[in-house]
Design a protein that fits this description.
This protein has about 90 residues and is mainly beta. The chain has one domain (about 20-85). It contains one helix and six strands; from the N terminus they run H-E-E-E-E-E-E. The protein has one helix spanning about 1-10; strands spanning about 20, 30-35, 40-45, 55-60, 60-65, 80-85. The strands form three sheets. It has a two-stranded antiparallel sheet with strand order 1-4. Strand 2 (about 30-35) and strand 3 form a beta hairpin. The mean pLDDT is about 90. Bound molecules: zinc ion. Zinc ion (ZN) binds near residues 38, 39 and 76. Zinc ion (ZN) binds near residues 68 and 78.
């Protein structure tokens, strides 16, 4: 009986990867670091504060636009995109 009670109170989270629509300006805890394919200039996109994903579908491919920053010395202003997959999951706190 004691064993059954313990089993009933167990909490388990099953990750199913459902598609969930994000906000109009969805921040995620990630900074994307890149090197421009045209001029080699290094840059980054901070999705946790300055930048965001627009209406991402969590669990689905998202085209993230990157550009060689304007105003930076040596930047060529080249624009391109990379495919990323934003994920929204849940885990038990330690
Ligand atoms: Zn560049």
């Amino acid at each position: 009986m004691e064993t059954e009670e313990m089993a009933m109170s167990e909490v388990r989270i099953e990750t199913v990867g459902a598609e969930v629509e994000g906000a109009k300006r969805q921040h995620v805890g990630a900074i994307v670091h890149f090197t421009c394919p045209e001029c080699g200039q290094a840059g980054s996109v901070d999705l946790s504060s300055e930048d965001y994903l627009a209406h991402p579908l969590f669990g689905e491919t998202y085209d993230l636009d990157l550009y060689c920053w304007e105003g930076r010395e040596g930047a060529c202003q080249h624009e391109w995109s990379v495919e990323v997959i934003p994920r929204l999951t849940l885990e038990l706190a330690p």
